[in-house]
Amino acid sequence: MKSYSLKINGQTHEVEADEGALLLWVLREHLGLTGTKYGCGIAQCGACTVHMGGQPVRACTIPLSGIDQNQEITTIEGLSEDGTHPVQMAWIEAQAPQCGYCQSGQIMQAVALLEQNSSPSREEIKSYMNGNLCRCGTYMRIVKAIEIASNKQMNS
Fold first, then answer.
1. 19-29, pLDDT tens digit by residue?
2. pLDDT band for position 67 (50/70/90)?
3. Cβ neighbours of residue 102 under 8 Å, at least 6 residues apart?
C-alpha cells in the first residue's frame, strides 16, 4: 500500500491504496464519492467522467500513480453542494435522465464543454458529447439540457 495525497472537490484527501489502484475505485470505495459511476472499465462509455485540471477524463482507467498530487480533481459532488449548478438545473428542466446511471458523466462532460465554449452549436454539442453513452437513448434531452444551460449562461 502506498500513501497518496489527492485534491478532490477543493479538499485534500490522504488515501492508502495499491499503486495500481484506479481513481474510480478510490473515489467510490475509499472516499464515498459514489456519483462517479462504473460503466465499461475501458474509458469508452463516459459514466466515470470527472475533471482533472479542468479537463474531462475517464476515472476508470487512471491509476493513482499517474496523478500529479497538485492536480485538482472535480467529481459530480464537487459541482455544487446542493445540486444547483446551472447544468444540473438544466438537466432537471429538460428532464434529461431516464434511468440516470450515465448522467453524472454526461453532466461532467457538458460542464467541460460549456467552460470551453459557452455558446456551442447543436453540432458542437453532439460532437463533444459523442463519447458519452446513454443506454436509455435520451440524447436529444441531453442536447436540450446543454442548450438550456448555455442560454442561461449567456443571459446571466
1. 899 999 999 99
2. very high
3. 37, 39, 45, 46, 47, 132, 133, 134, 135, 136
Residues composing the chain: 156
Full 3-state SS string of the chain? CEEEEEEECCEEEEEEECCCCEHHHHHHHHCCCCCCCCCCCCCCCCCCEEEECCEEEEHHHCEHHHCCCCCEEECHHHCCCCCCCHHHHHHHHCCCCCCCCCHHHHHHHHHHHHHHCCCCCHHHHHHHHCCCCCCCCCHHHHHHHHHHHHHHHHHC
Cell of 111: 460542464
The predicted model scores a pTM of 0.95
User: Which cell goes with 68?
Assistant: 500529479
Which pLDDT value is given to residue 69?
Answer: 84
